[in-house]
Amino acid sequence: MDSLFIYLLKSSLSLMILYLSYQLIFKKEAYFNFSRLVLLSILFVAIFLPIVPYNAATVISDSPEFLKRTNELNAPIYYFTLKEVVVKASDSGFQFFNQISYSQTVWIIYFLGVLAMSLSLGWKLFKIFRLIKFSDKKNYKGLHFVFTYAGAPTYSFFKWIFVDPELFENKENFEEIIEHEKIHAFQGHSIDLILAEIACIIQWFNPFAYLLQNTIKENHEFISDHKVINSKVDIKSYQLLLIEHSSLLKTNNLTHNFSYSLLERRLKMMKKSRSPIGFAIRLFVLATSFTLIFFACSSPENQSPNDLNKDTPAAEIATNPIFEGGMEALIDYISSELKYPDQAKLDGVEGKVMVSFTVEKDGSISNTKIIKGIGAGCDEEALRVCESMPNWIPGITSSGEKAKVSMTLPINFKLEPKEDPLFLVVETMPSFPGGEAAMYTYIGSKLSYPAQAKKDKIQGRVFITFVVEKDGSITGAEVLRGIGGGCDEEALRVIRTMPKWTPGMQGGEPVRVQYRMPIKFTLQ
Fold first, then answer.
1. How far is it, in rounded angstroms, from Cα 2 to Cα 376?
2. What average pLDDT does the segment 345-358 reach?
3. What span, in angstroms and rounded, lies between the C-alpha atoms of 504 and 429?
4. Strand locations in 61-123 (E)
5. Of 503, 499, 501, nearest in space to 429 by CA
6. How large is the C-alpha radius of gyration of the chain?
């Protein structure tokens, strides 16, 4: 789930930043086809770029030499992998069916939103195709006209044009509407709306996804209006036609409505002039935004310890860097400083975090980063502890010089295994082999009266508690109430040496049962 969270974070922020950049610097430009390209680029970058595993530094590594760090060429780094450090934590005790964690709740809400938006898209498509199937149709000028009802607005989806049958017969006014809708159909504008709808499904929580969808739809109308006017249609008559067919009726989000509600802005954009200089400046600023997003979506360089060790000139290192006190001291330090994150315990997250860091020539720690993580706060905690480590004893080359060495430290976060529930009363209680009489006979034969208790004339009952495990073995024997004189220890000894019992049963399954037993010491 951590990778999905990172994807959604990168995707939503990318869409927001690029959309705001477009709105601030490019919205009023009259380069409508180029605007369509920009808006589709925002969609593709937001949806697909965060999925692509790339490292920006690696991508530009073939750029001119001045972009590279020459100091690394002159000061080689040697690589070594340390022994694994295991960090244990007792289980938080939460069961999934008793309590759902906060992160699980968030993901449940997210996927419910995705499901709702997907069903909404399916319903919109169903209504369109149902209307196509059960309505009268006619092919005209390469388009498929679907007749709706009198007074209905004209709208399109791919090459289907939904129109009032009376308006279709009025060829004088309808020819310009046909020209408008043909542009939507033959330029594939409906594909753009489907992609925008998919972005809204993925980012249903992001208001900028819906704003982008509306802006794409608006741009389609500008493109069609501009094309119609350029086909030598009188601009005033076309504007009057738009006003005449203006409608407040809401159509499907997947369709293009000829009487789209942003009528005033469409009329203004028809008269909008182009400024090549202003376009060039805005294009440069917009390209800068895309470049920033390219670097922001970059993944950290992913190198495995084996890959690092392939280039290890081990013969040149005489002494590896050493933590003050050696490996055991390092393990003690990590174990004492590192805290198992509560979220990781709650979610049951465990596994190995691979941390890479560089021991500099002065022994200081630098370049700390995660090579492989497990999320839920474990990566951040491992980084924090490694970054705060005291100075090491630096590595020494075979020539006696101090060396800069990159170390890889595996830190294993491990939860304690969950214990089965412990019962006090079950459907079938545990039993000693042969029954209760055999148990007391066994205890009587094994128990010896302690000499100290005889000397001090101590007698009474020692109350012992123990657990009969699912396999019948005895564990956890403790004294609840004792009388001293060695009697408590003797009672515990005998209980611990008892043979396996027949385990207790609950729901037809063996279970762990806590048992209490009084053992009486009596002087003759």
1. 8
2. 82
3. 5
4. 77-81, 85-89
5. 503
6. 38
Nearest to 152 by CA among 245, 225, 219: 245
Rounded distance between C-alpha atoms, residue 327 and residue 331, angstroms? 6
Residue with tokens 């759902």: 100
Strands (E), 345-440: 351-359, 365-372, 395-397, 402-415, 422-423
Q: Which residues contact 255 (CB under 8 A, 6 or more apart)?
A: 128, 155, 156, 157, 162, 190, 193
Phi, psi of 434 (to 5 degrees): 95, -5
- What's the whole-number mean pLDDT along residues 132-159? 84
Please check whether residue 124 is in contact with residue 253, taking contact to mean a CB–CB distance below 8 angstroms.
yes
How confident is residue 197, by pLDDT bands cut at 50, 70 and 90? Answer: very high
Chain-centroid distance of CA 419 in Å reads 29
φ, ψ of residue 401 in degrees (nearest 5): -95, 150
Is the CB of residue 481 less than 8 Å from the CB of residue 518?
no
Contact of 501 with 495, CB cutoff 8 Å: no
Distance CA 322, CA 395 (A): 7
Provide CB contacts within 8 A for 144, sequence distance 6+.
Answer: 132, 137, 138, 159, 160, 161
| Pairwise CA distance, residues 519 & 522, whole Å | 10
What span, in angstroms and rounded, lies between the C-alpha atoms of 257 and 240?
Answer: 16
| Adjacent-strand bridge partners of 96 | none
Distance CA 58, CA 62 (A): 8
Contact 42, 22 (CB under 8 A): yes
The three-point CA angle 363-368-372 to 5° equals 135
Sorted by sequence, the CB contacts under 8 Å of residue 466 that are 6+ apart come out as 474, 475, 476, 477, 478, 495, 514, 515, 517
6 CB-near residues (< 8 Å, 6+ apart): 50
With a CB cutoff of 8 Å and minimum separation 6, the contacts of 229 are: 235, 238, 270
Asked whether the CA dihedral 265, 266, 267, 273 is positive or negative, the reply is positive
Residue 95 in this model has a pLDDT that exceeds 50:
no
pTM over 0.70: no
Q: What is the dihedral of CA 497, 500, 501, 507, to 10 degrees?
A: 140
326 token code pair: 């050696």
Rounded CA separation 241/502 (Å): 91
Task: Identify whether the C-beta of residue 43 lies closer than 8 Å to the C-beta of residue 195.
Answer: yes
Backbone torsions φ then ψ of 80, nearest 5 degrees: -145, 150
d(Cα 165, Cα 145) in Å, to the nearest integer? 9
Which residues share a beta bridge with 372? 354
DSSP state of 498: P
Q: In the structure encoding, which two tokens stand for residue 475, read together?
A: 């564990």
- CB 497, CB 489: distance < 8 Å: no
The C-alpha atoms of residue 332 and residue 28 are separated, in whole angstroms, by 63
Top mean pLDDT of 74-88, 122-136, 291-305, 342-356 is at 122-136
514 strand-pairing partners: 467
On whether the CB atoms of residues 438 and 111 are closer than 8 A, the answer is no
Determine the 3-state secondary structure of 447 from DSSP.
Answer: coil
